[in-house]
Amino acid sequence: MRTLSLLFPILMLYFSFAHGQDIPQIENADIRIQEVVQPQAPDNRTQNNTYQVLPNGNKPGKTISLVFIGNSITAGAGLRNRAQEAPPVFAAGYLKNFPEVGRVDFANQGVSGYTTVDFLPGRPAYARVVQTAQNLRTREGMLIFSVSLGTNDSASEGPNGSPVSPADYKNNLRILADSLLKRFPGCLVVFHRPLWYSPNTQNTSRYLAEGLTRLQTYFPALEQLVEEYQSTHPGKVFHGDKDGFGFFEANHLTDFQAEPGRQGTFYLHPNARGAENLGRLWGTAIARALGLTPPKIPKPQTE
Predict the structure, then answer these.
(1) What are phi and psi of 217, to 5 degrees?
(2) Helix axis angle, 87-95 to 272-290, nearest 10°
(3) 52 occurs within a structural domain
(4) Is residue 41 situated within a structural domain?
(5) For each successive 10 residues of the chain (303 residues), what is the average pLDDT?
(6) What's the angle, vertex CA 156, arms to CA 161 and CA 163, rounded to 5?
(7) Would you say residue 23 lies in a domain?
(8) First and final CA of the chain: distance in angstroms?
(9) Residue 101's domain spans which residues?
(10) CATH code at 259?
(11) pTM metric for this prediction
(12) Which residue, 184, 169, 218, 151, is CA-closest to 67?
């Protein structure tokens, strides 16, 4: 018994050390994992539970902390390396080019299949967003929530709560924003329009032309919501990207993945090139909300 009592602390020290070394690493000179944020509840559809830091080489300027809330498009579904190719990576990298910006910290909280219903307070996805934001908030700088939801809301069948009406879509986003603004005074919320998808889109969920039509009814609802916040929370809630829908409709053959579906090949998720272009669009919108000086950077690829 005495031998076991002596071995126990030694074994505990060994396993503690071994666990401390088991930290995911990204082999990329520009991006590294800064901290692992564990989800509060298991969810096999959650793709990213980390926040990342873009090293700035001691570049002076303000620190921006971004939490990206979204679905599979935000998560980077179908991309070979989501940690390096998902749209939030490019949005954060784009913002780093602005002269006023020093360090950029960001967290990808996109979850495949999720709707505005899944991110309501009290849901596991919302709890993970709050937990991640609290970790980021311990670092100095502006906290920004970048929200891109609506694709799964518009589905006729499949995702949680779908189909979501324009009124409920607007109300769900209002509840989300109200809670975040209350929990994190001084934060900003940027709502992006959801993207175009082909009218034959059907995988495990059914979207089709009906869903695409419904998706576009969210646009005026989003406009109204942001306008109302200008009175209740001036300078806190912004309308982000409005160009992505038209851009990807025109360039889906080059910027979307061709996916096999029940109604033939459909287009829903950006490929690596599309993710980069979407990141630029989101980054541009966030920079506009912050009033940053535009950098001289190439426009989205169209050829």
Answers:
(1) -75, -15
(2) 40
(3) yes
(4) yes
(5) 40 35 27 31 37 66 93 97 95 92 93 98 97 82 95 98 98 98 96 98 97 98 98 97 98 98 97 97 96 69 63
(6) 30
(7) no
(8) 73
(9) 29-290
(10) 3.40.50.1110
(11) 0.82
(12) 184
Tell me, letter by letter, the H, E, C secondary structure of the chain.
CHHHHHHHHHHHHHHHHHHHHCCCCCCCCCCEEEEECCCCCCCCCECCCEEEEECCCCCCCEEEEEEEEECHHHHCCCCCCHHHHCHHHHHHHHHCCCCCEEEEEEEEEEECCCCCHHHCCCCHHHHHHHHHHHHHHCCCCEEEEEEECCCCCCCCECCCCCCCCHHHHHHHHHHHHHHHHHHCCCCEEEECCCCCCCCCCECCCECHHHHHHHHHHHHHHHHHHHHHHHHHCCCCEEECCCCHHHHHHHCHHHHEEEECCECECEEEEECHHHHHHHHHHHHHHHHHHHCCCCCCCCCCCCC
Tokens of residue 113, six digits: 């299949």
Query: Which tokens is 212 given?
Result: 């695409």
Number of domain units in the chain: 1
| Residue 182 domain-assigned (yes or no) | yes
**Tokens 């990576």 correspond to what residue?**
89
Residue count (the chain): 303
Q: Name the token pair of 132.
A: 């991640």
